[in-house]
Amino acid sequence: SEPSVLVTRTLVEEAMRALDGHCEVDLYEGPPEAIPREYLLRRAAGKQGLLTILTEKVDAELLDAAGPELKIVANHAVGFDNIDVPECTKRGVLVTNTPDVLTEATADLAWTLILACVRRLGEGERLMRARTPWIWGPTMMMGHDLHGKTLGVVGCGRIGRAVVRRAHGFGMRVIYNDAIRLDADAESELGVEWREWGDLLGESDVVSVHAPLTPQTRHLINADALRAMKRSAVLVNTARGPMVDEQALADALRSGEIFAAGLDVYEREPQVTEALLDLDNVTLLPHLGSATIETRTAMGLLAVENLLAGLNGERPRTLLNPAALG
Ligand code: GLV
Ligand code: GLV
């Protein structure tokens, strides 16, 4: 009989169709919030595959609930902080993510927020929508130039590098900080210079976060980091919310310690720290980094391809834990 899989959220139609005829699909079609934990535990039981999204915590409890038949967890995201990968590896369960296919879309969204912040887009839009009377004036709603300024990229992986390439089009100088330093050739080809953490914060006019969430990067942007930034600086986070201390950010934005911030992800997603919602110098988006038709189709198809490969005993294309192959 066909292997059975749990799909925790409806994917784009093309990806749902790619599952047809290959496995028996148990699809969670409840309200558009995350699948409730007790349903997830119950419905994972006896499955050979799980196709998860970032709201599902894949831990020892879930793996126990799924049972020994489970072969693969295919995550529909590049980030995999929701998955206990070592625990999966220990049990011989493959784990995959969806890298590469969302790199350009996510870099575009980071730039959407960078531009929105420096040019006060949200504030201007809100003014128009409120039907506030206005007239063009030489000092009205001034933001900051980008050309000739410095972009500081935090995490220079695939998405960070795509953000760097765009920065050169805007005439910016680029510095970066990453636990893993690129080699000199890669740095000069990309047009970036490495900086110590404190130097990156102090020199950057725009700080954009593109690192994975790990115990080391949690609250990387805290009160001290915000104090180290220029008062004219902008912070953008399109990676994972818990890397930014939201209360500290709200305080820094209110007191003018930094100029503006743009967030696509939240510390307690989908909740937003209340103090941020009242500030004009923060632009807030509902985790749209990879949300284009083209990219979500590619992500869905890659997640399904990985899932089916794992079920068939083949090596999935974007496998995170080769050690689980045994
Ligand atoms: C989305 O946030 C992802 O990790 O793909
Ligand atoms: C991700 O983690 C990336 O930069 O692709």
UniProtKB/TrEMBL annotation:
One of its GO terms (cellular component) is cytosol. It holds the Pfam family 2-Hacid_dh_C. Residues 5-321 form the D-isomer specific 2-hydroxyacid dehydrogenase catalytic domain. It comes from the Bacteria. Keywords: NAD, Oxidoreductase. One of its GO terms (molecular function) is NAD binding. Residues 112-289 form the D-isomer specific 2-hydroxyacid dehydrogenase NAD-binding domain. Belongs to the D-isomer specific 2-hydroxyacid dehydrogenase family. This is Glyoxylate reductase.
